[in-house]
Amino acid sequence: MEEICTQPLDSQTIPIDQLINESAPSYGQLVGNGYNFGTIELCSEKFSVGRDQKCDLVVSEELLPHSSRILISNFHFTLERDVKDCYSPTYIIDSSTNGTFVNGILIGRNNRAILLPGFIISIAAFRNLFVYKQPNYSLPPEVESPGLIKQYHIGRVIGSGSFGTVHLLHHVSSCVPYALKIVRKQPYKMKLRGSSSLFNETEIMKKLNHPCVIRMFDFINDPSSISIVLEYMQGGDLLTRIMDNSYLPEQTAKFYFYQLCHAIHYLHSREMLLENEWFNHSDVVQLARSLMKLS
């Protein structure tokens, strides 16, 4: 696509020192890769980049040559983050005509992606313009899979128990939320029947598609843990819902039981057994229960 001028050039600029010397605590940094951008501390929930004087970072002639600035939109991209949540992902929203790229991949106008530490931002014809850094971003020690680390933002813990932990997960390209269940192998001294059987069962589980069965999207068998990427259920579990309301009205209980029966019938019709040879008996019940979901 032909690169075009998107807005008239602005003559006024805001000194970049005002951005670099922010006194408020920052959650991350935009590190300029040349072009005199320096290191910019990110402190606010929204941070915009473009030629317009309303942008937090105004791309002026001091930063880019006059002849090249015509490729930069007035509002080229914006970073957004919930600064009150230390586990929140950082989103980059493309609002440009000539493109915003993360690691060489076009986001697309009015689309968004998630930034991970070390991701490279390019705008228009300017490749590798910024590197995103987030010094306080830390991965759970039990996460071993490079694929998980590169493809997902691993956030706050949303569940825990003797089996391990469940983290909120976001895919960096689609921004879709998932639940990451990490099961430690050592406490249970898991005895698998064989790797072929294990992966056959997980492949079958991936194919399950029913509105009352939580979907499994990925399974990673690491040396000391098992990671399972599941559909994220924002509504919580049935026990919590009952406890929060003291009881369930009869019609509501019937509706939930109806869904449960539908899920069990679906599994039995495909000769799916509600058991799992990797875990002990108590965890079999927990896993089977976690497969069910409420509308």
Automatic annotation (TrEMBL):
It catalyses: L-seryl-[protein] + ATP = O-phospho-L-seryl-[protein] + ADP + H(+); L-threonyl-[protein] + ATP = O-phospho-L-threonyl-[protein] + ADP + H(+). Pfam families: FHA, Pkinase. One of its GO terms (biological process) is signal transduction. ATP binds at residue 185. PROSITE patterns: FHA_DOMAIN, PROTEIN_KINASE_ATP, PROTEIN_KINASE_DOM. Its EC number is 2.7.11.1. Residues 152-295 form the Protein kinase domain. Residues 47-107 form the FHA domain. Keywords: ATP-binding, Kinase, Nucleotide-binding, Serine/threonine-protein kinase, Transferase. One of its GO terms (molecular function) is protein serine/threonine kinase activity. InterPro entries: FHA_dom (IPR000253), Kinase-like_dom_sf (IPR011009), Prot_kinase_dom (IPR000719), Protein_kinase_ATP_BS (IPR017441), SMAD_FHA_dom_sf (IPR008984). Homodimer. This is non-specific serine/threonine protein kinase.
